[in-house]
Design goal:
This protein is mainly alpha-helical and about 170 residues long. The chain has two domains: about 45 residues, no CATH class; about 80 residues, Orthogonal Bundle (Arc Repressor Mutant, subunit A), CATH 1.10.10. The protein is about 65% helix and about 10% strand. It has eight helices and three strands; from the N terminus they run αααβααββααα. A hairpin with a 7-residue loop joins β2 and β3. α1 runs antiparallel to α2, α3 packs across α6 and α4 crosses α5.
């Protein structure tokens, strides 16, 4: 993993000190900030590795998603839903994958108004290479399988709580 030079201080510790002087709730702020910092580091590492394959993480996710499809293709709208991105973003992702020869657009056999996205042979081959990327990221951590499962469990709990809070806000 390639890392930029470390700061001479821990930015989360410094932010915690400043936060505590003004607002309190320091541990909650530290947890959220640490989560966001870890997420940014992982995305940067993934992007650095995937760049060698001509991919970004978003394009990698789209290639993997197409692999999970029973028919080997998905409607453009369904891809956006499953990737949880705005329709404009999924269109941009597909356009770039298509320009690279990794996917192609096809009219749906079931609904001619719908466009389906299908992996090309080149896309399938690249996806197979790129699937090694998550393993490389995880192997760079000191987590054993039990630690990885525990982390995932905590993240699942957090995600469920955030989803529930969002639903509560939408209720009248």
């Amino acid at each position: 993993m390639v890392r930029k030079r470390a700061l001479p201080f821990d930015p989360i510790d410094e932010a915690s000190r400043q936060w505590g002087r003004r607002w309190g709730a320091v541990e909650q702020m530290r947890a959220v900030t640490s989560l966001m910092r870890a997420q940014q580091i992982v995305i940067n590492e993934l992007d650095d590795i995937l760049r060698k394959h001509g991919l970004t993480f978003a394009r990698f996710e789209a290639l993997v998603l197409l692999t999970f499809s029973r028919r080997g293709s998905l409607p453009l709208g369904k891809m956006g839903e499953r990737l949880q991105v705005h329709p404009t973003s999924v269109t941009s992702i597909v356009r770039r994958l298509e320009a690279a020869g990794l996917v192609r657009r096809e009219r749906s056999a079931r609904d001619e108004r719908s466009v389906e996205i299908r992996l090309t042979d080149e896309g399938t081959a690249l996806r197979a290479q790129a699937l090694q990327v998550p393993r490389r990221i995880v192997s760079a951590t000191s987590f054993d399988l039990e630690g990885i499962r525990a982390l995932k469990g905590q993240l699942d709990t957090l995600t469920a709580a955030l989803d529930e809070a969002a639903l509560e806000e939408q209720r009248p």
